[in-house]
Amino acid sequence: MAYALEKSDAAQLGPSEAVASDPALISAVDVDVFYGEKQALKGISLDVPEHRVTSLIGPSGCGKTTFLRCLNRMNDLIDVCRVEGEIKIAGQNIYAPEVDVVSLRAQVGMVFQKPNPFPKSIFENVAYGPRIHGLASKKSDLQGTVEASLKRAGLWEEVSDRLDHPATALSGGQQQRLCIARAIAVEPKVILMDEPCSALDPIATAHIEELIDELRQKFTIIIVTHSMQQAARVSQHTAFFHMGVLVEHGKTEQIFTTPNDERTESYITGRIG
Amino acid sequence: MKSDHIVRSFDEDLQQIENLVSRMGGMVELQIDNSAISLVQRDVELAKAVRADDRKIDNLESEIDIAVVRVLALRQPAAQDLRAVVAVLKIAASLERIGDLAKNIAKRSTVLGEFRDIGASANIVKRMCGLVQEMLKDALDAHVTRNINLADDVRMRDVEVDQMHNSLFRELLTYMMEDPRAITPCMHLLFIAKNVERMGDHVTGIAEQIHYVVSGSLPEEERPKSDVTSLTAISSGEAAAGGGQAE
User: What is the mean pLDDT of chain A?
Assistant: First the structure.
């Protein structure tokens, strides 16, 4: 990858140094985010390696979701929000004026805390994206894409005989996997997940976590989670945010066994709120 | 130990485990001391007590194992907390082994009680036991106070135990060559000395675990080792010249 870091660059970036060995797909440099006067993110420099799961952890209000939303320009939807700095995905500056935000969001899919299927059939939920992005010209292509996406999301076995049923009739865990199928149907490079399991029971959570591990073979995944155990289970890299600052970023096992920063240590051992 | 978890009962759980280790360590220290006394003073009753008390140490190890598994299951400790509980498992296992070695010394002391005075050699063993006991005491203090410098210091002191073992080994070989009737007591004393040397190694292992708890990594510096008994041979000529007094 063009964004593999030279050693000297890694040293300058500080928190990302520990993960410089994995080639980065997403590279954020000195990102500041303001909501009006209030600065929500301060000088975030973070490299997200390709085909890895990166967890963003930190207390509520630390800026992890704000950072996640920068990566597919969801913050554009908030009038008072201002993003400074540079974010490149596969070498492309996503805040460059020529960037088409709609196609960016197809490249960078998102799964939210609460499953939010369209009030349509299971089939239509998955078919919607490929259809509007013109990824399937024939009906048979579309059927193939829907089937492949549902299979990849581990949902096909459970819904193949009722694709015309309303998506909202599925269980919470199934709905969340449907949302993941919907996101991957348009062949994104990156999937952003904002606490995707917080509304799910442990079994449904285990299904999603298993799915995340499979999906990383093909996609790059960034997950915001409040569950430290989930971050430890699913991710290879972990970034700890605190009060709008990226405190530490490293291999997950290093963060959870020997964090470098006192604030990370306090947070993951349950010593600060 | 650094405390002040938001959930205070977590602190209590960790403290309970640390207390168990301190208690177990104290008992093992006493076992080392008593086994050495039983040897030097040919105190068969004390030796019997040491053998009986080993069960208490074994029980404490089981208690620690259960407490650690419980904390791992219920609290999912991370970072320093995780290192602390994992280290405790290993420290408890080392203490249990030291306890076994002390028990074995007591067993052999019972046999040695039936032989003529074994004098000076037994006193050297007692001094070795004293060194190991001091090392263990400091290691346990270092554990409670998270004092990495003290732990590293303990790790370096094992070399003294090794050197005493070397010299005793030569001495006992010489005695055996000089007088075959001495073979039985000398063999028992050799095993006893080896036990003490092994105790020193276990204490060193405990000190390394404390280094790991505090710093997050095992000590990198090579520790001095000086046990050369595996390579030692004494010729009959040397024995006649009083090889036992060498070094």
Answer: 89
Give the mean model confidence (pLDDT) for residues A38-66: 96
pTM of the model: 0.81
On the question of pLDDT at B212 being above 80, the answer is yes
Q: Which residues of A touch B81 (CB under 8 A)?
A: 269
Residue at B2 is within a domain = no
Residue B54 placed within a domain: yes
Please report residues of B whose CB lies closer than 8 A to that of A273: 6
Is this prediction's ipTM beyond 0.85?
Answer: no
Across the range A106-123, mean pLDDT stands at 94
Residue A236 within any structural domain of the chain: yes
Residues of B whose CB is below 8 A from A265 = 79-80
If one counts the domains in chain A, the total is 1
Say which CATH number the domain at A104 has. 3.40.50.300
Number of domains in chain B: 1
Searching chain B, which residue's CA lies closest to the CA of residue A269? B78
Q: How many residue pairs bridge chain A and chain B with CB atoms within 8 Å of each other?
A: 37
Residue A66, in any domain of the structure: yes
* Residue A233 forms part of a structural domain: yes
- pLDDT (0 to 100) of residue A46: 97
Domain that holds residue B172: 8-245
Nearest to A258 among B76, B77, B79 (CB): B79
pLDDT bucket at A6, cuts 50 / 70 / 90:
very low
Inter-residue contact A88 to A107 (CB < 8 Å): no
What pLDDT does residue B240 have? 64
Domain that holds residue A189: 7-268
- The verdict on B77 touching A (C-beta cutoff 8 Å) is yes
> How many other C-beta atoms lie within 10 A of the C-beta of residue B119?
9
In a domain, B238, yes or no: yes
Taking an 8 Å cut-off on Cβ atoms, the answer to whether B6 and A270 are in contact is: yes
B1 within a domain of the structure (yes/no): no
| Whole-number percent of chain B with pLDDT over 70 | 95
- For the segment B53-80, what is each residue's pLDDT rounded down to a tens digit? 999 999 999 999 999 999 999 999 999 9
Contact list, A264 vs chain B (CB under 8 Å)? 79
Specify if A2 maps to a domain. Answer: no
